[in-house]
Design goal:
- This protein is mainly alpha-helical.
- The protein has one domain.
- Helix content is about 75%, strand content about 5%.
- A hairpin with a 2-residue loop joins strand 1 and strand 2.
- It is globular, with a radius of gyration of 18 Å.
- The two termini are about 25 Å apart.
Length: about 270
């Protein structure tokens, strides 16, 4: 095992620790770690990421469920269109994407480059949500939810389809999109929105991975299980550390790190 590979597996633990410590965001680093450190192809990395993100979210979601902080009605309304969308994206859309998308000047945008650039743009969007403190606005919306519980079903379904398609394409959970949607559109209290979001991410990510398996994707199960087990162990470490460290204070710094990583990925894919 090379030094880069060792760093890659250590990064798996870091991903898990960040998930346990700040409650999300860490999974956005899964694809870059798999591609740049462990040499996995972008398409396969997005498939692996679905499994890893799904497993990690399931662990966290079950913890919230035990505390009664999951709204199953809203979860079902959001999850059904989301997992249909992610399943069809992995089963039909991703395998059908052409090897070369288009050419600008002398730059050829291939399938791998296109997926990584879209993923990098999603990282930048996620970093903004971590850096920009939306906590007060969401808290106000969540407080309103305590008195006015109503559902905007059409928008919840549309959001589910969009998030499912993005998840299927780039292998990210999309929690930074789901939580605000649950608070604003479904009027859920904040903690309930987080718990519900985790189970939604788990369901749609694992369903999307099944689409990969059925489409004949080449899965290295031993590698995937080792990486997932390390990330899972990291979650428990992060959860323990969350009792000692204020994760919210780390979230903004982590957001800047994700922003730098996303910007570097765009530069690397398009200009290096």
């Amino acid at each position: 095992m090379t030094l880069i590979e060792i760093i890659g597996f250590i990064s798996a633990a870091v991903i898990g620790i960040s998930l346990g410590l700040i409650g999300g965001g860490g999974s956005i680093l899964t694809v870059p770690v798999l591609v740049y450190l462990l040499g996995v192809s972008p398409v396969t990395a997005t498939a692996y990421s679905l499994f890893i993100v799904g497993f990690s979210s399931l662990v966290g979601g079950l913890s919230y469920a035990k505390k009664g902080l999951v709204n199953y009605k809203t979860g079902i309304v959001f999850t059904i269109p989301a997992f249909i969308s992610v399943y069809l994206t992995r089963l039909l859309l991703v395998p059908a994407l052409p090897a070369t998308w288009f050419t600008i000047g002398g730059l050829e945008i291939t399938k791998s480059i296109g997926i990584m650039v879209i993923f990098a743009l999603l990282m930048i969007a996620a970093s903004y949500s971590m850096i920009k403190d939306k906590k007060k606005k969401l808290k106000a919306a969540a407080e309103e939810a305590d008195t006015v519980q109503k559902f905007n079903y059409p928008l919840i379904i549309i959001e589910g389809v969009v998030v499912g398609a993005l998840t299927g394409l780039v292998g990210a959970g999309g929690g930074f999109l789901i939580i605000p949607a649950l608070v604003v559109l479904a009027k859920l209290p904040m903690k309930e929105a987080v718990g519900t979001s985790l189970l939604i991410i788990a369901a749609k990510s694992l369903i999307g991975f099944i689409g990969d398996v059925q489409s004949g994707g080449d899965i290295d199960w031993v590698f995937l299980m080792i990486f997932t087990a390390i990330a899972g162990a990291g979650i428990f470490i992060g959860t323990y550390l969350s009792n000692l460290i204020d994760g919210q204070k780390l979230k903004k710094g982590f957001g800047w790190f994700v922003l730098i990583m996303g910007s570097f990925m765009i530069y690397k894919e398009l200009f290096m």
